[in-house]
């Protein structure tokens, strides 16, 4: 399995690897938010309006998210 991806500490999005290997990983929706690999629970939200999980996490756009992100 590949290295665990980073997740955004603010919107819980699972972040793709940066295009260049040494670029810092950053959430494009919340650039100042901390990112971490310390997260658990992978969910894919296809229809945020119809998903209870999405509503609980305040997710309003489709994508891959972590259920829980631990920011120190
Ligand atoms: Zn974010």
Write the layout of secondary structure elements.
Elements: E1 6-8, E2 14-15, E3 35-36, E4 39-45, H1 52-56, E5 63-69
Antiparallel strand pairs: 1-2, 1-3, 4-5
Zinc ion is lined by residues 8, 10-11, 13, 27, 29-30, 33.
Question: What keywords describe this structure?
Answer:
72 residues, mainly beta, Rubrerythrin, domain 2, three-stranded antiparallel beta sheet, two-stranded antiparallel sheet, binds zinc ion
Overall average pLDDT = 92
**CA-based shape:** globular
* Model regions low in confidence, pLDDT < 50 over at least 5 residues: none
Helicity level: under 10%
Structural class: mainly beta
The profile of the biggest β sheet is: 3 strands, antiparallel
Instruction: Give the C-level CATH assignment of one domain.
Output: Mainly Beta
Number of strands: 5
Overview of this protein structure:
With 72 residues, this protein is mostly beta strands. The chain has a domain at 20-69: Rubrerythrin, domain 2. Helices cover 7% and strands 29% of the residues. The chain has one helix and five strands. The protein has one helix spanning 52-56, and strands at 6-8, 14-15, 35-36, 39-45, 63-69. A hairpin with a 5-residue loop joins strand 1 and strand 2 (14-15). The protein is globular, with a radius of gyration of 12 Å. 22% of the residues are buried. Bound molecules: zinc ion.
